[in-house]
Amino acid sequence: MNAQASYPIGTPGQAWGRAEKADWRARQVRHRSYDVDVVGVIDGLRPRFDVVQYGELDYGADRYPLFAVKSREWNDSLPAVLVTGGVHGYETSGVHGALRFLDQYASGYAGRVNLLVVPCVSPWAYERIHRWNADAIDPNRSFREDSPAQESAALLRLVGPLRDRVLVHVDLHETTDTDESEFRPALAARDGMPFEPGEIPDGFYLVDDSEYPQPEFQQAVIEAVAKVTHIAPADAKGEIIGSTVVAPGVIRYPLRQLGLCAGITDARYKTTTEVYPDSPRATPEQCNQAQAVAVCAAIDYALARL
């Protein structure tokens, strides 16, 4: 099937121009509140952490302050841990898993690491339950110099001074059924390309860095999360979303080359989590907990090897 022919915006075979992007943006509907769901929770964390505003998204009538949560007792002699969620705003457990880690687990690492947690990188997309930002740009392909995405550029400015001091970076994501029903067809239409259907994996998996792989680290995270929710199996080709499975629940991408968030630092230990919230075998509670547990397992592994 050529989903491009049925996508409601654009002409099949022709990349979108300004008019098509404006049409797409006008169709996006606010479904939830960043201020209530995210900023309100962050405000509740202020007695225990430092909260900094590191930027503001400006989409005309829509403006969003961007917040990071930091260890109160920041000590430059300690290693830094970066946790990012909501790079794709529609990936709900990435946002709420990061907030859960802060609320329930972060205190256990006080005096051991410096924590920098950005729970919602893309608040415009969070409210509209979308993958892209308001300019129809995927922030998670835009982490590079002169980024076209406001969200990516702001995060790069925040993290820049710490780039070579980060020991662990965990970037929290989801793979959902709407990847196949909406977001990949929209991508094909936007770029004037044919849509090729894929397969959504049922379960949790990780994306390692193909340029600097850490297989034992990835497996430690997988083993911890397997106690919370199921791990995605390989498909009939031995792949997950078109990439070879190199270990149970683990694939690899060239993170920095692709402009992915997990590649923005020189961290020795880095990973992208992928939860499947549409599985009949997983609840929202399990998805949020899997994200928080993944962060804890990543930090624990790294600290045990200092």
From TrEMBL:
Q: Name one GO molecular function term.
A: metallocarboxypeptidase activity
Q: Identify which cofactors the protein needs according to its UniProt entry.
A: Zn(2+)
A Pfam match is: AstE_AspA_cat
Identify the residues that the record assigns to the Peptidase M14 domain, covering every copy. 30-306
GO BP, sorted A to Z: proteolysis
Q: Which segments cross the bilayer?
A: none
Query: Which key words tag this protein in UniProt?
Result: Hydrolase, Metal-binding, Zinc
Sequence similarity: Belongs to the peptidase M14 family.
Q: What is this protein called?
A: M14 family metallocarboxypeptidase
Originating species: Agrilutibacter solisilvae
Organism placement in taxonomy: Bacteria, Pseudomonadati, Pseudomonadota, Gammaproteobacteria, Lysobacterales
